[in-house]
Amino acid sequence: MLDYVISAAVTMLVVIDPIGLAPLFLAVTTGLSAEERRHVAWRASAIALAILALFGLIGAPLLAALGITLPAFRIAGGLLLFAISFEMVFGRRSERKSDATEAAMREHLLHNLAVFPLAIPLMAGPGAITAMMLLAGEARGDITRLGALFAITLLVIASCLVVYLAADRVNRWLGITGNAILTRLLGVVLAALAVQFVIDGVKTSFGL
């Protein structure tokens, strides 16, 4: 049991990487107020937790029933992530206005950001979903182990939320110029991460 808990904790921490998500959170929420960032952080964390819990319970049978392989899921996540990185590199995410006539559109934007790319694929991405399904499989129906797995997942997502809520302080420290530089640099990093997702998916699909 102890070995399982340690393995699950290390795996979920490494795969989700709460600390590494902080600069990415700042980059994709450029132009949002502190209150809007908090709203996005809470919503993204709740969505990611729900997705991981769902896949931990019924993920493998669901994908098998739909005829979807994990490599295909990884490739799809990589392509979607690349679209976001493209916007970041060319500064399109900073072109946001907050006047009254765009209030409805802005609310729609906040909901979209929380779902994609924060909840999916950055927090509950192919790697995290795969790890969740594998760890749930290793539990072999043991309620105690499954409970420990879900508790660990909850703690890791909670740590992501804490990191997100503290990210605004980093944003104020960076300033406008620092944020602009960080957004574009991280856009390149995200693009590389997206390409790596696709490469890993293709390699697994063809047994390379």
Automatic annotation (TrEMBL):
Keyword terms of this UniProt record: Cell membrane, Membrane, Transmembrane, Transmembrane helix
Organism name: Ancylobacter defluvii
Protein name: UPF0056 membrane protein
Coiled coil feature spans: none
Family: Belongs to the UPF0056 (MarC) family.
Localization per record: Cell membrane
UniProt superkingdom: Bacteria
Matches recorded under Pfam families: MarC
Transmembrane segments: 6-28, 40-66, 72-91, 112-136, 148-167, 179-199
Entry GO CC: plasma membrane
PANTHER family to which the protein is assigned, alphabetical: UPF0056 MEMBRANE PROTEIN YHCE
Membrane topology: Multi-pass membrane protein
NCBIfam families in UniProt: NAAT family transporter
